[in-house]
Amino acid sequence: MIDALQTATTGMTRATDRLGKAAETIAASGAPVGDTALPPAAQVDLTSAAADLVGSKSAFALNTAVARTADRMMGQLLDISA
After folding, report:
1. CA 29 centroid distance within chain
2. From the centroid of its chain, how far is CA 82?
């Protein structure tokens, strides 16, 4: 059970890191401070950043479900053995 919780926690950490990187990519595609000109559309790849946002959200939710299930199973195991 502990392995499942550790795996879920690691997965949530990686999903959070992935979300942060995607957010940085999106923020970096904007106009620099004090400059009103945006970079050419050919240089900005927001589709992969948007896909990373959705993917990281799903990965975090799935790892949260694993952690909840492991916690529930541990509780039932403790109830049985008590």
Report:
1. 20
2. 37
What single-letter amino acid sits at 51?
A
Whole-number Å distance between alpha carbons of 19 and 80: 40
Residue 82 DSSP symbol:
-
C-alpha torsion sign, points 67, 68, 71, 77: negative
* pTM metric for this prediction: 0.75
Read off φ and ψ for residue 39, nearest 5 degrees. Answer: -65, 155
Distance CA 52, CA 66 (A): 21
Distance CA 62, CA 39 (A): 36
33-73 per-position pLDDT tens digit? 666 565 565 566 788 999 999 999 999 999 999 999 999 99
Task: Give the three-class secondary structure for 36.
Answer: coil
